[in-house]
Structures are given as structure tokens and as C-alpha cells.
Design a protein that fits this description.
Layout: H1 4-17, E1 20-21, H2 25-41, E2 47-52, H3 54-60, H4 74-84, H5 99-111, E3 114-118, E4 126-132, E5 137-143, E6 149-154, E7 157-161, H6 167-171, H7 177-186, H8 189-212, H9 219-226, H10 231-247, E8 254-255, H11 261-278, H12 282-303, H13 311-326, H14 331-345, H15 357-376, H16 392-406, H17 408-418
Parallel strand pairs: 2-3
Antiparallel strand pairs: 1-8, 2-4, 4-5, 5-6, 6-7
Helix pairs in contact: 1-12, 2-4, 3-17, 4-5, 7-12, 7-14, 8-10, 8-11, 8-12, 9-10, 10-11, 10-15, 11-12, 11-13, 11-15, 12-13, 12-16, 13-14, 13-15, 14-15, 14-16
């Protein structure tokens, strides 16, 4: 029986992780740090220096920054934060931008000297923004997580010093799929409903926007127009459409998971689509979303915030686990679904945030669903099949090692290719 303390612990993880963000979270984190630096300076800067880790460059290089009139890139994120960012809004830092602000951004983007440097930090997620007005200077550093400020300085004086590793990261290491399922089965729905209802509303809204608009490569629309629209096609199409919109400038907020909007949509939208098609009661949906979100968080925790491993793989497996629950599956079924899904596409690389993320999401959702159907029909992958180990927790540990340690050189090669080095 899960204790009250553990129940509250899982409820808090959902509240901490499933938060709103407007736009791809890496450029938004840059905008957040830039807005904070401008506020600390107390004046409009005359120049800016930003040092970022390779994974930040990878994820901010090619994506449209929302509320900028379609502009892309790190410099755009810096300018947006400086010109119109509300630092108190965290990952919705650009939510109150006006048309006048966008026009000013365009002018500042052309005139403000901005130096972008590759950081020598050992952390995969690191942003250091320094601004000056010619007399005074201020800097803000964000490390490991998108709003985790670890230092604020003004004219060399430390105004704030924070912890590089947040407590929630340490605490999440003791999660397990078995306990996640027990929590989902027993939690009072009213404790989780506000958090999950917001996720449903926001993420389904941007999926609908992706299908009705014209964003990126329109992966969601291609799925619906090219395949017979059964339940699995709809699940992939809607999840991909949310990413189509989000990667290409849609200004609707997304509820993230593990710091990522794409992962938040992947873990939730397919579960909602299956729930609708199966005609189940609302309580079943909330419990299934507990499974999908917490499974994603558990798998992703060992991988880290950013790596060469595509986070949609973890979220797609999580979605498969949630769908398994909708079909009446228990711990054993969910564990096998996760192992099967992770065995199929754990080689999928992250080469930055951009339009093709939507296609990778569709692939991850497909394999989450396939993982479920494999076990449902008496088929599965066994320990010793590649990176698969006996037991779901051991397989998750294998994925963590692969992503965090094994793909370190892959990450460097991806960045070099994206930056044109060696050509």
C-alpha cells in the first residue's frame, strides 16, 4: 500500500514537472535569462555576451521563437528577452509581447552587438548571459534546468547564488514503474485533476492548431491525409501536429514534461486520443495520464535534461504505457510495453529543435503503441536482446547509460555537423 507521504511526493512531482511554457524551452530559457539580466542591469544594454553549452546551440539554432514575428535563433531569443521579456513569467517570459515590441525587436536585432560563444561548461544545459550599458554590467547563469538560476551578478558582485542540482532531480531517482502504477490506481483524482486538466486543455489546443494551420512540414496533416485514419494514426497525427505548430512559431502554451514541450505533448496527446476513441470515463483518463507522464519522467531522469538521445522516445514509451492502462493493463502489461518500446527506437538521435521533431514524435508514438500490441498478442523482447535487460527498471537503466554516457561523442559529432565544422 502506497503511503500518504509517497502519494504526496508523486502529486508534487506532477505539479513541478507539468508546467506551462510558450515556445521551445531552450530559446525560451535564453529569453528568460536575458530578461533577468536586463532587469538586474537596470537599463537597456548596449551590448550582450552569451555563452551556451552545445546542446543549447543545438536546440535553439533552428526553431522559431514565439512572439517575434517568425524570427529564429539564439540572438533572437536574447533580443526578445531584453526588449519585452517578463522575467517573473518564467517559461512564459514572452507571453505579454505586443506588436510594438516585435517591431522594436527587429530593430534591436539589427543593431545590438551580441556575441554568442560555445561555453566550456561540463554541463549539457548551461546558459550565461552578460549585458552591459557601457558603465555597469550584469550576468545571469541558468544551469541544468530551464529556470534554474544558479548565479546573478552586477558589476562583479554576487547578488544570488543557487544550487546547480535541484532537489527534485535527486528525489526522482527513487521512482519505479511498479509504484507509479500503484499511485495511479489509488490516488484521489481531485489531487491530480487540476494539473492534468490543464495539460489536456493546452496540449490538445495546440494539436488542433497544428492541424488547422500551416506549420513546418505539416507532419500531422500528412498522416491524416496519407493513411486510413484509425485510432493509432490519429494519435500520431495529433501529437505530431502539436509539434508542427510549436516548432514553427505557434503562440499557444504547452504543458511540458521533463523540461520539454515536445515530450509533454507526446506523453499526453496520444493518451487523450485513445481515451476519446474508446469512450471511457474521465477518471480512467486521469489515471492513464499519471502513468504516461510519470513513466516519461522516470525514463528521462536518468538520461538528463539534454543529450544526443531524442527525448520523444521516452515520452512515446510513456504514451504506450498510458494507452496500455486504458485497455485495462496492469503493472506487468505496462512494464512489458515500456521495455518493448524502448527496445525499438532507443537509437533515435536529437539533432536539435526544428520541424522534423514532429516526425520523430510520430515515430516514438508508433513504437509506444507497437510495444503495447506486441505484449498484448503474446510477443515481447527478452533480456539479452540488445540493450534490453530482464526487468523494466534494468532496461531503463540501460537506456540511461546509453543516452548519458554512450552517446556523448555522438552529441559532439551532431553539433559539429550542425555548425558545419570539418566541411
Amino acid at each position: 500500500m502506497i503511503t500518504d507521504e509517497r502519494r504526496d511526493y508523486y502529486v508534487q512531482i506532477l505539479k513541478d514537472e507539468l508546467v506551462p511554457a510558450m515556445g521551445c524551452t531552450e530559446p525560451i530559457a535564453i529569453a528568460y535569462a536575458s530578461a533577468k539580466a536586463r532587469a538586474t542591469l537596470g537599463a537597456f544594454p548596449t551590448s550582450c555576451d552569451i555563452a551556451v553549452s552545445g546542446n543549447i546551440i543545438k536546440n535553439a539554432k533552428s526553431v522559431v521563437v514565439p512572439h517575434t514575428g517568425g524570427m529564429k535563433g539564439i540572438e533572437t531569443a536574447v533580443v526578445a528577452g531584453i526588449v519585452a521579456g517578463n522575467e517573473d513569467a518564467r517559461l512564459e517570459v514572452l507571453s505579454s509581447v505586443t506588436d510594438e515590441d516585435i517591431e522594436r525587436m527587429r530593430k534591436v536585432r539589427e543593431t545590438l552587438p551580441i556575441t554568442v560563444r560555445l561555453s566550456d561548461s561540463d554541463y549539457p544545459f548551461d546558459i550565461l548571459v552578460t549585458v552591459t550599458d557601457g558603465v555597469n554590467n550584469a550576468s545571469v547563469r541558468v544551469t541544468n534546468r530551464h529556470t534554474n538560476i544558479v548565479s546573478i551578478t552586477r558589476n562583479g558582485e554576487a547578488l544570488f547564488t543557487g544550487e546547480i542540482t535541484e532537489a527534485i532531480e535527486v528525489k526522482k531517482k527513487d521512482l519505479s514503474i511498479e509504484e507509479i502504477v500503484e499511485f495511479a490506481n489509488t490516488v484521489d483524482i481531485e489531487l491530480i485533476k487540476p494539473t492534468l486538466k490543464r495539460q489536456i486543455d493546452c496540449n490538445m489546443a495546440i494539436a488542433e492548431a497544428g492541424l488547422s494551420g500551416n506549420y513546418g512540414a505539416n507532419i500531422g496533416k500528412v498522416y491524416l491525409s496519407s493513411y486510413l485514419p484509425d485510432i493509432s494514426v490519429k494519435a500520431k497525427a495529433y501529437a505530431a501536429a502539436g509539434s508542427d505548430a510549436r516548432m514553427n512559431g505557434c503562440e499557444l502554451p504547452v504543458i511540458i514534461n521533463s523540461g520539454s514541450g515536445n515530450q509533454g505533448m507526446t506523453a499526453s496527446i496520444p493518451v487523450v486520443i485513445y481515451w476519446r476513441e474508446l469512450g471511457l470515463d474521465e477518471e480512467k483518463l486521469y489515471r492513464a495520464l499519471c502513468i504516461s507522464n510519470l513513466s516519461t519522467i522516470h525514463v528521462k531522469q536518468g538520461i538528463g535534461t539534454l543529450s544526443a538521445y531524442c527525448g520523444a522516445v521516452a515520452a512515446g514509451a510513456g504514451a504506450g504505457a498510458g494507452i496500455t492502462y486504458l485497455y485495462g493493463g496492469g503493472y506487468k502489461d505496462i512494464a512489458h510495453t515500456l521495455v518493448n518500446a524502448l527496445a525499438i527506437d532507443s537509437g533515435l538521435i536529437c539533432d536539435g529543435a526544428k520541424a522534423s521533431c514532429a516526425a520523430k514524435i510520430a515515430t516514438a508514438v508508433e513504437n509506444g503503441i507497437l510495444g503495447f500490441h506486441l505484449y498484448r498478442t503474446g510477443n515481447q523482447f527478452f533480456g539479452g536482446d540488445g540493450i534490453v535487460k530482464k526487468g523494466v527498471e534494468n532496461t531503463i537503466e540501460s537506456v540511461s547509460r546509453l543516452a548519458k554516457d554512450g552517446m556523448r561523442d555522438t552529441d559532439k559529432a551532431i553539433l559539429e555537423i550542425m555548425l558545419g565544422k570539418g566541411e
